């Protein structure tokens, strides 16, 4: 049983690591994209400290941010604040990030906080969202504004043709 579980975990994580390795070849020349670009891949982890130790030791990734609070502004203007545990890791000198998150709520009330996705940074989230819908994508979370201690952004989530989850993000201030 343990062998099957380990194989399953490796089968899920390995494609993300390969994807991350390929994208890490891009140098950190862009601060704000003129065209869409890959920004991050998100993985849910069960133990943040263990995962940080693993990714920094195994791949020489650097922790560039450790985010503990998130403020989300909903479409109706209502704001929701929540405690989170997210870390952004990057290869030295590179823009693309591995985002890992540990669910703090044992009931996982925010299911969107614990799914794997690819993040794409865009200059205009409204027109990029329209383009995804016209191409056949489905909106799974409308455009919302999010804030952390050092980043302010607009985000929206979509489902692609095979059920994959895509996050669009437009950075308003700060660096991811």
From TrEMBL:
InterPro entries: Glyas_Bleomycin-R_OHBP_Dase, Glyas_Fos-R_dOase_dom, VOC_core
Domain VOC: 37-171
Gene3D superfamilies: 2,3-Dihydroxybiphenyl 1,2-Dioxygenase, domain 1
GO CC annotations on file: cytoplasm
GO molecular function: lactoylglutathione lyase activity
Gene Ontology terms: biological process: methylglyoxal catabolic process to D-lactate via S-lactoyl-glutathione
Segments traversing the membrane: none
UniProt-listed Pfam families: Glyoxalase (PF00903)
Top-level taxon of the source organism: Bacteria
Name listed for the protein in its UniProt record: Aldoketomutase
Organism: Algoriphagus faecimaris
């Amino acid at each position: 049983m343990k062998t099957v579980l380990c194989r399953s975990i490796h089968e899920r994580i390995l494609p993300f690591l390969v994807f991350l390795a390929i994208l890490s070849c891009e140098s950190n020349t862009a601060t704000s994209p003129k065209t869409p670009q890959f920004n991050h891949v998100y993985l849910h982890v069960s133990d943040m400290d263990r995962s940080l130790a693993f990714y920094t030791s195994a791949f020489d990734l650097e922790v560039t941010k450790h985010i503990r609070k998130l403020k989300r502004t909903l479409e109706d203007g209502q704001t929701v604040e929540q405690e989170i545990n997210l870390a952004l890791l990057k290869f030295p000198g590179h823009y693309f990030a591995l985002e890992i998150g540990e669910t703090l709520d044992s009931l996982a009330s925010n299911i969107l906080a614990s799914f794997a996705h690819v993040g794409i940074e865009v200059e205009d989230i409204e027109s990029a969202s329209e383009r995804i819908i016209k191409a056949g994508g489905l909106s799974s979370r409308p455009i919302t504004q999010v804030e952390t201690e050092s980043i302010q952004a607009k985000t929206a989530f979509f489902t692609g043709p095979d059920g994959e989850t895509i996050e669009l993000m437009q950075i308003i201030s700060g660096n991811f």
